[in-house]
Specification:
This protein is of the alpha+beta class and 315 residues long. The protein has 11 helices and 12 strands. α1 crosses α2 and α5 runs antiparallel to α6.
Length: 315
């Protein structure tokens, strides 16, 4: 891609604003964000875009929270360019975005109790393909402007592993989103943003200096109603695998259920397009208070009138 002089000038006048708008414009206009076999149905609503500082201490903490193999932004960028981490400039940035699922997609899943709705599964499959295209687009226009950029999720070095707690990877899009101030985690292990929990995340690491977005959450689970003491068990009730309890999300149990519905039900797969298996489940992300909003905003309004029920499940 080649940027026109006027576009380049606009980029340099306010890089943060330009990057955000570029991502929004691409999502809004790209034919890859549409299901051609369903009347060009648009999968993702307008994205949320935020930035994390590459040296945010959280990225070092993830080596303890997730695994020692989890990459810092510096390590991720250096590996892509075959450099040593210390050879990169001191200030790096992580561009993080949220792709909120469209209402009809969410509705298709809300109506289900055991398997994902077909529109949800189509979006999970084809929508993640688009997410990869978006990652490449962001990398391309940054490198065109002379900056280093990488989408760790698409790199040959990206790996998934498993331990006694279940699957994990060496780059977590949700944890990058948390460092960028998009929101917090939930009891179900999902990520609750201002656009709710029904979404996909993406990120790119770059040496373009961008202002870090503020982190306003008071803790890693601050947007989860259950975690703050509200009598909400919606995601537990919605989970057909019983993989969500008051103790959190059982990744292994969840994965086993996904495999069972993805590879064992020929009837369920009938009518899917190109999916080699039923993509995702996501029942815990729909028909719940955090589906498409940050429920804490409503909670604060209710608290003013003394109408919230709090349970002592936390010590």
């Amino acid at each position: 891609m080649s940027l026109a002089p006027a576009t380049a000038a606009k980029f340099h006048s306010n890089p943060a604003e330009f990057v955000e708008q570029e991502i929004k414009d691409f999502v809004g206009a790209s034919p890859d964000n549409r299901l051609s076999f369903l009347d060009d149905y648009v999968m993702w609503n307008e994205p949320l875009v935020k930035y994390a500082a590459g040296d945010n201490p959280l990225f070092d903490q993830y080596k303890s929270i997730i695994a020692p193999t989890h990459l810092t932004p510096r390590e991720a960028l250096a590996k892509a360019y075959d450099k040593e981490p210390e050879d990169l400039q001191s200030r790096l940035s992580v561009i993080s975005w949220i792709l909120p699922a469209a209402e009809a997609t969410r509705d298709s899943n809300s109506a289900e109790t055991e398997v994902p709705g077909r529109l949800w599964s189509h979006t999970r499959w084809h929508g993640e393909v688009f997410n990869g295209i978006l990652r490449n687009h962001v990398v391309d226009f940054l490198t065109e402007m002379g900056y280093m950029a990488v989408a760790p999720f698409l790199q040959p070095y990206f790996r998934t592993f498993a331990n006694e707690k279940g699957p994990y990877s060496n780059w977590s899009e949700r944890h990058a989103a948390y460092a960028a101030g998009h929101g917090t985690f939930s009891l179900s292990d999902g990520f609750i943003t201002e656009a709710g929990i029904a979404h996909r995340c993406g990120s790119v690491v770059t040496d373009l200096e961008l202002p870090a977005s503020p982190m306003t959450a008071t803790g890693p689970y601050a947007n989860c109603l259950f975690d703050v003491g509200v009598n909400c068990r919606a995601c537990m009730i919605r989970c057909p695998a019983d993989a969500i309890t008051e103790n959190g999300h059982d990744k292994i149990k969840c994965q086993e259920y996904l495999v069972s519905i993805g590879y064992s039900s020929a009837a369920l797969k009938d009518g899917y397009n190109n999916e080699t298996s039923v993509a995702g489940c996501g029942l815990c992300q729909t028909k719940v208070p955090c589906e498409f909003v940050n429920p804490m905003h409503k909670l604060k309004r209710i608290e003013r009138w003394g109408g919230v029920q709090v349970i002592p499940h936390k010590g």
